[in-house]
Please model this.
Amino acid sequence: MTEVVKTPKIPPEKQILMTINGDEAVAYAAKQSLVDVVAAYPITPQTIIVEKFSEFVANGEVHTEFVPVESEHSAMSACVGAAAAGARAFTATAANGLALMWEILYIAASLRLPIVLAVANRALSAPINIHNDHGDAYGMRDSGWIQIFVENVQEAYDTTIQAFKIAEDERVLLPVAVNLDGFFLSHTLENIRMLPDEEVHKFLGGYRKTYPKVKVDYFDEEVPLILNPARPLSFGPLDLYDYYYEHKMHQIEAMKRVPEVVREVNEKWYELTGRKYGDGILVPYGVEDADVVVTVLGSTGGTVRHIVKKLRSRGYKVGTIRIRLFRPFPHKELAELLKGVKVVGVMDRGISFGSYGPSFLDISTALYDLKERPLLVNYVYGLGGRDAQPEMIEKMFMELLEIAKTGEVKEKLRFLGVRE
Amino acid sequence: MLKEIIFYGRGGQGGVTAANILVSAVLREGLYGQGFPFFGAERRGAPVMAFSRISDKPILRHGMFYDCDVLVVLDPKLVSLGLTKRIEVRDRGVVVVNAPDNMVLEKKAFTLKGSAKFYRVNATKIALKKKLVIAGWPVVNTSMLGAFARATGLVSINSVAEAIKEYFHGPIGETNAEAAVEAYKQTCETEVC
Model:
């Protein structure tokens, strides 16, 4: 949900009203973020991002070096090289393209490169399907990237800019994936408010500049950790059982510092634009007195909130939490919000075959240490772009309310909207 | 006051463009809008839906819908073939059809959940008169936006004309906007048997 404040530094009338789709919103955000290098390969439903951005390049509206690579593996590789040389790098992909990036995703994260990647979430093959689910994002879950899911086109724009701020923060220095639902957001036109270019530049502090300094024995002084022929450094050379583990610890520690940075950036954005998304991590609605709470990621969050509003007006004690920050996962924050709730329904637009939906696994972990644990049901839904219709979500709430009454979960893993 | 609108036409007829221009038009009146194509593989000439949502509050919902408050039919053949039956029109709904002057509209060609008002306009004639023809097809989408404004009152014809001019730029924008205004004037409520 977009919360609006009355006196932001840039009042709404000074912001630029635009009618654009999610992909275009991401492209405009990247343009305003003074990106130095974009290396990308088109894949539906992300294509418009790259298309639009290459238009900016062709028109001379950006200073960006655009690299039309031959595959997604190369796209991420080029971004790794660019970011290691100190550039602000951006790319976008989806589904099979993201799968092809997989190897380099880990390298980007472990080299601590603040790359921003927009993922227009799409189902993985086979069978071939171009429509939305979160299978692709769940696949990169363990790669060491920060993962944020957005609910609408406005948030796609806002979050893409925020992503650079988060990634480049000295406490973080990790790549960020901004996830927007394919078609439901990527190809849906909405009215949004954009900031003037110079305000975005100011928010980000201009071009990328935060490089950590390192002491290397062959230089007299500390040098910035970037590829620079004048002061040659190696990135990611061989690192066996002597230090590999310690380097992983650095990534683990960096991830721990992410939530505070996400909160800060959300708050700063709020002061600037008047818009914020919960605390930047979780977006709760109607949770305080709720017996039943449903958690959800992405654009379905709005549809769920619409049903919560409807049911609350009829006197049902229901609520919802949209998980905006998926990696690192907000275990503590969720446990805090969900203690005292009778039943939690966890919606996953994807599944770990042979197990549960990935967000369900995390939420189970989050709730394990509570003295009184809520009952949990996992609802897998919307695979391959199957619509999450309001009627279906309402039925799910009714089922959960019944469980709250009886205290009995018959099936822990349920499949919403699938043919029997 | 969330209203859900389906533009029903043929692939290449400009239904998606109409849905998108409508979003830009309502923006001018301080309303919120959402516009998107049918999420699927569609070919030129095949029956195709495009969707719009209009509301005075931010729109929470995402995803497609299969029943609507307003149905705008771009190709009269979809009515005579009975394909319009696939879409449910909600109670107190509005149906706007691009219909030739001699066409008789029948209730049985539609699925109505309650009462509905029917409007007609000969958008094809307007398009031909304005010489709005692309690859042999009369361009009726902009005229149907004018008809939409008249039939529903959800958006003013001025905002529609402005949005069209912004979308197309230059003389082609002017001509399309004129077509919309012309259609706005000619649209009338009609009896269905």
Summary: Chain A touches chain B through 27 residues (CB under 8 Å). Chain A has a mean pLDDT of 96.
